[in-house]
Specification:
Order of helices and strands: HHHH
Strand content: under 5%
Structural class: mainly alpha
Distance between the termini: 32 Å
């Protein structure tokens, strides 16, 4: 491998690490926002807006279910899938609000002076690890193994 190839490889690694750092910062900064404390209309909007967006995205994607051997579109499937997507999104956002509030309360009861900062640090590290894993899988490597080891694919 010549100097040019080594330089390109180093540049690629640095870009990847910069991307991981940016995602980690974003994850940490988002964890500083006390969304678990939201009440009333704000809490409803934090759950309903992403759910409606997910349902609309699935509906707009043009997904169509075959009604049977004759083809056509099943109206029930065409309605049920967006509703299910919205329901899953609503549940996960509601659960994240409950979890956020619970973790903050847990840390505060244990005497942590700045629970949001601890949550942000954990979120930043978790985001960085997940990003590195995604990059490794994308590049066909074992996420936690040697960088030169190809990922095992099921036969």
């Amino acid at each position: 491998m010549g100097q040019r190839g080594e330089l390109e490889g180093l540049t690629s690694v640095l870009r990847s690490l910069a991307s991981t750092g940016a995602w980690a910062v974003a994850g940490g900064v988002w964890a500083l926002v006390p969304v678990g404390r939201a009440r009333g209309v704000t809490r409803t909007l934090l759950v309903a807006v992403p759910a409606a967006a997910a349902a609309a995205a699935v509906a707009a994607s043009g997904w169509r279910a075959k009604a049977g051997p004759g083809g056509g579109t099943s109206l029930r499937a065409a309605v049920l899938l967006p509703v299910a997507a919205g329901g899953v999104m609503a549940f996960t956002h509601w659960a994240s609000l409950v979890l956020d509030h619970g973790v903050e309360d847990f840390l505060a009861r244990r005497g942590v002076r700045r629970p949001r900062l601890v949550m942000a640090a954990v979120a930043a590290v978790a985001t960085a690890l997940l990003d590195r894993r995604a990059v490794a899988l994308r590049d066909g490597r074992e996420p936690l193994g040697d960088a030169r080891t190809p990922a095992r694919r099921p036969a």
